[in-house]
Amino acid sequence: MLIFITIFAIAVMSVLTIKYAFPSRKYTNHSGKIFWTACSIFFIIAMILQPQIVYEGSVKGLKTWFEIVLPSLLPFFIASELLMAFGVVHFMGILLEPVMRPVFNLPGSGSFVLAIGFTSGFPIGAMVTAKLRQEKLCTRIEAERLICFTNNSSPLFMLVAVAVGMFNKPELGLVIAGAHYLASLTLGICLRFYSRNDREAIAPAFSAGNILKRAIRQMLTVQSRENRPVGRIMSDVVKNSVSNLLAIGGFIILFAVLIRIFTNTGLIHLMGDFFGILLIPLGISPELLQSLGTGFWEMTLGTKSVCETTAPLLQKLVAVAIILGWGGLSVHAQVASMIAETDIRILPFVLGRIAHACIAGLYTYILAGYSYGETLALAKPVIAAYGQRTVSLTANLLFSFSLLTLLILLPIALAILLQLLKSMKSFVYK
């Protein structure tokens, strides 16, 4: 009943708006606002007619945010803000330029986004990228490249929540996470050709001298420009981090409510039928279609729904890879809110998510299809033990911080080693 009332309300409003509100030449400028106004009316009607469903969705979204997202992301938000304030990102920007530029056609400061995006999960990569853009550490095109492949699912979510908690097969974490990150790196390398003729360029602050000395000098320069006392810096960092997480929580609750409404009205089922037109010819089980429809809106619920079906394991793994690669419209909305104060466009990110979903699904099919019998059997004891060790929040945070530290220190060590080898080569040829 609700779906017919909604369609009728949208149709009536659209006809009245087109006929009376705007001249035809101005309609295209207001069509987007008309659509969102109609969606708002749909949401209000749903809340009035089905308050119990709205309440249950809100509670579920709030519980997810409070128990999972808030404790998992808050330390990383605070850490990234502090590293930006104290010039560590500027230090990495100069030191890792020789590594990032040839591989990804990105500035060295992008290495920090790469590290934190691969270890903490959505949408912190977009938040840090927006900070880089505001600090003029990257161009708009470079920022758009960054948000396309550095916003990934959390390794703990894939290795523990999905593999152990949903599939009850710890050995699958190797395939799920491996395909996800391989797809990200593949996408990042391909995106180096995106807008290669970008005219905007950011000149380095220090271009002469030893690269390590230049990096340290840049970090000290940033610190000297920072006039706030340490207490004020900490206060601002915590306020900004909590504010960003509150916005993320709002989106999570909103989309949890929308999914409950869409499921109850049958819209999720209709979306599953639409996906069936595209995917059934490729051999995807019809059981997975409604789960993919749920995953289109929200990643966690879609992944859980896939794991609860009786489809073949290989197809379920591919479906999970597609959902994790896409991220869900909830994540897209979170990313859009993070870059709203910059000139970074959201369309490249959406297209990048589509590409990531396709590449991750292909990699999962290859990894799981050809190596499931041997590779996963060999990895099972290791991954199973890992899954047992990381069930607590403290262990999860320690593991994430160790990954983040490793991904930051390894490129720095590589850059220093390359600089030493270059210096030794110059000394020998003298």
From TrEMBL:
Residues spanning the membrane: 6-22, 34-53, 73-96, 108-129, 149-167, 174-194, 242-262, 274-297, 317-339, 346-366, 397-421
Keyword tags: Membrane, Transmembrane, Transmembrane helix
Residue ranges occupied by any Nucleoside transporter/FeoB GTPase Gate domain in the UniProt entry: 69-168
Entries under InterPro entries matching the protein: Gate_dom, Spore_IM_YlbJ
Pfam families in UniProt: Gate
The protein's name: Sporulation integral membrane protein YlbJ
